[in-house]
Amino acid sequence: MSDLKFGVDKPTAEEREAIDDFISGVGPASIKVNERFVVGGRSRAKDRRRLLLPALHELQSTSGWISPGGLNYICKVLGVPPAEAYGVATFYHLFSHQAPAANEQIHVCDDVACRLQGAEELIKDLKESGYEAKSSPCLGQCERGPAVLIQRIKGKDLAVVAESPKPLTVKNIDKALKENASSEQVTIPQRGTDSLSLLARVGVVNPKSIKEYQEKNGYEALGIALNVGPDKVIEEVTASKLSGRGGAAFPTGVKWRAVADEQGRPRHIVCNADESEPGTFKDRTLMEGDPFAVIEAMTIAGFAIGAEQGWIYIRGEYPVAEEHLKNAIEEAKREGLLGSDISGSGFNFDISLYKGAGAYICGEETALFNSIEGFRGEPRNKPPFPTTHGLFGEPTAINNVETLVNVLPILRNGGSNYAMKGTENSPGTRLFCLSGRVENPGIYEHEFGITLGEVIEAAGGVKDSKEIKAILLGGAAGSFVTAEHLHLPLTLEATREAGVSLGSGVVMVFDESDDLPDTVRRIAEFFRDESCGQCVPCRVGTVRQEEVLARFTQGTSFASDEELLEDLSTVMKDASICGLGHTASGAITSAINLGLLERTT
Amino acid sequence: MNEIPVGTPRSKIEIQIDGNLVKAPEGSTILDACRQEGIDTPTLCWAENLTPVNVCRVCVVEVEGSRTLVPSCSRPIEDGMVVSTDSDRVRKSRKMVYELLASSVDMDRSTSEVKDWMEHYEVDSDRMGEKTEIATVAQPPKVQDSLYVRDYERCILCYKCVEACGEDAQHTFAIATAGRGFDAHISTEFDVALPDSACVYCGNCIGVCPTGALVFKTEHDMREAGTWNEQDQEVTTTVCSFCGVGCNLELHVQDEKIVKVTSPADHSVTSGHLCIKGRFGWQHAQP
After folding, report:
1. Which pLDDT band, with edges at 50, 70 and 90, does A184 fall under?
2. Which of A595, B80, B183, B194 is most buried, judged by most C-beta within 10 A?
3. Which pLDDT score, from 0 to 100, does residue B3 have?
4. Which CATH number fits domain B148-285: 3.40.50.10470, 3.90.1150.10, 3.30.70.20, 1.10.246.10?
5. Would an 8 Å CB–CB cutoff place A71 in contact with chain B?
6. Cβ–Cβ of B189/A83 closer than 8 Å?
7. Do A210-418 and A104-179 fall under one CATH topology?
8. Which of A530, A537, A568 sits opposite B57 (nearest CB)?
């Protein structure tokens, strides 16, 4: 664009080609520029801004870093100011800002679950074997840690995990690189059981085959929806009392109704697949094992709220899920189940797949919108809410993957039928992410109302029959509980009453041998690293909180530290912009209240 | 006969602030309503000539029915809203925001308004730990030309400079927030020196900075030399003579030398913003 100033660095021929290939479908921001005349320019640049994040991914995978020449070229083509593009690129930790030292960058998860499985040793071994390895926040593979993500120059990303029960070694990494293959199995200990609804097809059908999907009730729900009409779909979802499974448990029917009643157009349906909560891997399991279900459910949601455009925002650390979803979108289009005039109904619907680049905060709905739009993933102040001012400032329904997949049995069996399962105020089933010291970690589907103890029993109980020291319930943004809570029924109302949260369904078990003070400090470090940095209480508060815990683990605490921690917790909860700051101290406070920071040795 | 513009009539909304019924025009923010009632409210990232970004969180108030505190600078008032501006929760959050900032940033050169509020809330940043032991943004100032100094150890990341450089005033987009979390900072692309960036040296970023992180080189040099003396400065208001727009200039004069130029934020022509000529083109007027 003629009124922006760009740097002098030039892209390499390869970078230019990769970016041109990617942009070719849309053309440059300014299509004609002479002394007094710009065609395109600012208004065209506005639509192109949303190509910034995917273009940065192109550059990263072409060159192994965000090179000045490459970024400059992207800015010219898209009409984005270089300072802003640099601000966006430096927001995500999967983008490198130094010329790569090796062809592969290995990210090893050393977060709460994986550090129990020897993550730190693996990083050391990898470095000794000459790999470029660094620690990473939770990679969403908690049932089979330590998990690894390999980013490569000019090659697809690979997710590598242990083929249990043996933990991952350097040899597994060598093998994955040689075979150019991610680990693909999903861990569903209940696989094939009749009672399963959300997981019925996971691990049973070929996730790449639309035929197999259709043979197992696939696309029945969409047929019903197109038949009964949008209002009836929302009625059924409302009758089912389905609530959001991402953590906030907002009633889905209410959300859809609000968007459907908005005057503004276009409207959007967004699938939040940025699952990054430490200990959570349920959405990955669904997307890897049953990707067509996500596409079908989004199509129904789009139909119900009157949206013709759907967006999936998947975290950048899920290469297998991404590939399966891409395939599912293509297959569905080929079968006329996505695109224009779906099944001859006159309903048009398309889905764009957006890939995150390593930022927990982008799971916050408004941060996710900013990320898709090509801005820094900083949350917006609410109100206004997404139902009125969502993606591109337009009415938007945004739902978690698991929430959407629930819509399929609701339509097939009826909302009131769905509500018979579970309890009155928490109807249906939900997925639990079992990890840590249990015999059979993995994803489990249970009706609401099952007790915490029963969930752990269903996973084979505590590993090696040891004593439970603590359970992290709901993820890093949830809280710790102890064996005293084993009788707690897992429903929204009972957990709320007990002052805890089901969050994203995390149940992570720690036994007496685990170093809880270290785990708690790691949680504090997680929030310190993942704060977006926008508001003061969270940007500085998470740092001070981690410093207090580090002082504690080093035995150099001040007398006033306990009071400081309490005040930090109160103020982050009260004055932060978004849920990250509001929940950043929850697990830590609960650990202190339960005395988990007192060292027994 | 001349027509007198009266603007679109706005109906008034009734809310309660600290127990008193208040009527304020529809579309006002809580902050507007507070100011209308003479209730002092601290702000850092808010400015009358910029779009509210509500990131600093010192203006938070308690609103009945809201789980968390709300930023008064950007929340529009709603009929029947019940607001407390001085509850324990509000005081605690405001105090700690200042403490968090003061523990990580050098606030010595903040505006007197900022300092007064810090005193009001009895800010004690020492309880965060020894400054040498805890994370801070300490770094040397960036002196890259003869007009600006960017002293980022004084930066509280209020985003005002980014807004003034971007869509709220200059549309130059030379600087933006880069990095994430505590590492977030204001930067040009790849941290290139300002003369190599898109900067046009309008100085509007300096005009809005509340903590002395962005200053005229003259001010920086005089402060370093210990000769900066704000009390002795005389401010003369005049009109810029470079073109016909009619921007108001405030010349800050010390020892008969112009040391800084500003424009009033409520001026109908400038809204406080100037260009390089008005801001820096005064050498010919020096004795």
Report:
1. confident
2. B194
3. 67
4. 3.30.70.20
5. yes
6. yes
7. no
8. A537
Q: H/E/C letters for each residue in A227-261?
A: HHCHHHHHHHHHHHCCECCCCCCCEHHHHHHHHHC
Query: Looking at residue B242, what DSSP letter applies?
Result: S
B71/A381 touch (CB, cutoff 8 Å), yes or no: yes
Rounded to two decimals, the pTM is 0.96
pLDDT digits (tens, 9 = 90+) for A127-145: 999 999 999 999 999 998 8
B contacts of A376 (beta carbons < 8 Å): 177
Pick the range with the lowest mean pLDDT from A11-25, A365-379, A507-521: A11-25
Per-window interface: A 484-543 vs B, CB < 8 A: 528-537, 539-543
Q: Which of A310, A316, A244, A329 is nearest to A284 (CA)?
A: A316
**Chain A residues near residue B197 by CB distance under 8 angstroms:** 5, 83
Chain B residue closest to A545 (CA)? B128
A84, A85, A533: residue with CB nearest B180:
A533
Interchain CB contact of A90 with B (< 8 Å):
yes
pLDDT band at A42 (very low <50, low <70, confident <90, very high): low
The predicted pLDDT at position B173 comes to 96
CA dihedral B264, B267, B270, B274 (to 10 degrees): -20
Q: Which fold has domain A104-179?
A: Glutaredoxin (3.40.30)
Minimal Cα–Cα distance from A510 to chain B, Å?
29
Q: Where do the structural domains in chain B lie, given as residue ranges?
A: 10-130, 148-285
Contact call for residues A378 and A240 (beta carbons, < 8 A): no
Q: In chain B, which residues have their Cβ closer than 8 Å to the Cβ of A575?
A: 57, 60, 68-69, 93, 96-97
CATH number for the segment(s) A516-593: 1.20.1440.230
Residue B94 token pair = 């405001």
Look at the block and give the residue holding tokens 């991914």.
A57
C-alpha closest to that of A372 among A55, A53, A157, A67: A53
Query: A429-511 domain in CATH 3.30.1490.20?
Result: no
Mean pLDDT confidence for A380-403: 96
* Cα–Cα nearest to A437, from A241, A143, A39: A143
Cβ pair B181:A532 closer than 8 A: yes
Which of chain A's residues have a Cβ under 8 Å away from the Cβ of B187? 83, 86-87
Interface of A with B in 111-170 (CB under 8 A): none
**Cβ contact B68–A359 (<8 Å):** no
Model ipTM value: 0.95
Q: Which structure tokens are listed for A9? A: 């660095």
In the CATH scheme, what is the code of domain B10-130? 3.10.20.740
- Look at A574 and B68 and tell me if their CB atoms are within 8 Å: yes
pLDDT surpasses 60 at B38 = yes
Tell me which CATH code domain A210-418 carries: 3.40.50.11540
pLDDT of residue A47: 78
Phi-psi region of A313 (alpha: psi -120 to 50; beta: other; left: phi over 0): beta
B148 strand-pairing partners: B216
Asked if A361 and A531 touch (Cβ cutoff 8 Å), the reply is: yes
- Determine whether the interchain pair A540/B54 forms a contact, defined as Cβ–Cβ distance below 8 Å: no
Is residue A599 scored above 80 in pLDDT?
Answer: no
Indicate the domain borders of chain A.
13-89, 104-179, 210-418, 429-511, 516-593
Task: Give the per-residue pLDDT at A164.
Answer: 64
Q: pLDDT tens-digit profile of A43-86?
A: 667 778 999 999 999 999 999 999 999 999 999 989 999 999 99
